[in-house]
From TrEMBL:
Record protein name field: Cyclic-di-AMP phosphodiesterase
Superkingdom of the source species: Bacteria
Annotated TM spans: 12-30, 36-52
UniProt keyword Nuclease, yes or no: no
PANTHER family documented for this protein: BIFUNCTIONAL OLIGORIBONUCLEASE AND PAP PHOSPHATASE NRNA (PTHR47618), CYCLIC-DI-AMP PHOSPHODIESTERASE GDPP (PTHR47618:SF2)
Gene3D superfamilies (alphabetical): 3.10.310.30, inorganic pyrophosphatase (n-terminal core), PAS domain
Keywords in alphabetical order: Cell membrane, Coiled coil, Hydrolase, Membrane, Transmembrane, Transmembrane helix
EC number(s) stated in the UniProt entry for this protein: 3.1.4.-
Amino acid sequence: MNNKDKNKNILYYGDYLCILAVFLFSVYALYSKNNVGIIGIILCILMVFLIIKKKKSDEEILKDKIQNLSLNCNKLTRKTLLSVPLPLCFLELNGEITWANKSFNRMVGIEDNTSSVGLNIENLIGNITLRKVLDENKVIEEDFEFKGRRYLLKYSFTKMDDESDGSADYRVIMYWIDQTELIKARQDCDDTKEAVLIVEIDGYEEVLKSTPEEKRPLLAMEIETLIANLGDQTGSLVEKIATDKYILFMRRKSVLELENTKFSILDKAKEIEYGNKLPITFSIGGGYDGDTIEETGDFASGALDMALGRGGDQAAIKNKKGFNFYGGKSKGFERKTKVKSRLIGLALKELINQSEKILIMGHKYPDMDAMGAAVGVYDLCKNYGKEANVVLENIGESVEIFINRLKENPYYENMFVDHEKAERICDRDTLVIVVDTHRPAYTEYEGLLDLSDRVVVIDHHRRGVDYINDTVLLFHAIYVSSTCEMVTELIQYTDNDSDMKINKLTAEGLLGGIYLDTKNFEFKTGVRTFEAASFLRNMGADTILVKQFFNSYAEDFLVKADIIKRTEIIDQTICISYSYEEIDNVNIVIAKAADELLNIKNIKASFVLGKKGDTIFVSARSLGDINVHIMMEKIGGGGHMDIAGAQLKNIDIDDAYNMVKEIIENYIEEEKK
């Protein structure tokens, strides 16, 4: 207790102390036989009576003051709540309004001379749900839109005790906080953030060469005009950074508007026609929402790489949440120049010569393209005097015949290693060469990618969102028929020595991979594909023996026939079917069934599902008019525009079938818009 409080207590008890002193003095006088003592005692009794009466009077006055103050406060509170600009209402748990202020009444459109009391909140506001939470200390919030305004609703649940019977009732206090202007200010701030767009003309040199010389200036001028119009439309600063590349600095809002139009500039580019045999297509990479302009630029650059890796003729937009893709519906065209293959080949030769340990792997459940390419790289290593190993854990029927022939040939002795041995071999300096996939989760043994710092990727699939990072060498060409074609060109052009030879069985494996991915030279077959096949034929590849790699069992034909019989046709152009039979090579059977379904008249695409263990395989095929890659990407798959697939884990085949069917129907609906 401080001195101030002590002084207050002394003053408060001062009257009693004085009476006590007089009383003690009077007792002393009476004891001394002095009549003054009697008078003093009488005075003490009188003073005590007067003090008690005065204090009672003071207490009554204080009570009156407190009561008047309470009444005044209640009046002030009511007046304040009625006139406060924040809409406020009290509700029963059934939604009935028991009290509301003027701001709430005005908000819901009730005149000042009327009241909302007794009305139900849902009849006034619409679809609003009161939370059944009876915790008086908890406030619940939610966003709500009413008459074009955005509100933050705060609910406070309060317990009201009934003194008559001791029961408890509950009321809801609802606060309406108008956030319309705040949200608009935030949106304006976001819309004006910087964004970067990079536009690259696909195969510009080839397009110019395919155009009559006298019309090339007109073609170039038309492209410049189209880019300039894009800059004007988006209020951008446009800079030409190369003969075939432009960079645009704009606001985030402009990128979102382009996304709403699904980048219609992609279609406008294809309309440019000045006698060019090859169409004009753009690859666009955009970035926004970076913490700095540098990060936004990195987003745009990465998005452009993604667009190019997926075949061009599309826009890829990246922010912190990931990628969005637009376009990508046209086929990529073949590049006739082999300069890239030669440069990649020389770089690969140097990496092989610098490596003491080399591991090669394809994707899980390898097919002939993956296995043929892996054996081709193995033979390439042997030509440079380096021993290599191909990582393979399980042998599927799709490569069973080829693998058995490899194991019978002493040239490939000890070539294969399982996962356990590969892990023992692999260290930071081991050269790990991945073929026919660029997705970490799809590789034969993903753990090797973490063990090695020297990874090479050779693949021809359209790039997915997840891909192997930090490669020392990347050979990614989506316009070629197969990875085996790419490896064949590396063998052809990796050295100036024209006497490089590969084993006859290696050549047959490479040719088998080309056979598989081109469907016997029917799909994605260009001039370079036939040149690669010719080279392999010169290396001794026997086409009859290659055909035997694809021989099937009789039961496979029965399963395929059952799949075809069960086929459902959607929109008269797309087939979808499935197999209930769980066979080891179900992925091969459904792929063959999907190919077969394309032979039906007017059918442009086919989808077939099959189950093996806890995995549902989806095989998608197209004649080129429908982009099955985009559709398979929606369920975590990928591939090419006309050949794609996906694998679904821990899902029933009926649910998977309905999922794929819904994707097909959504695709058709979007195309009809």
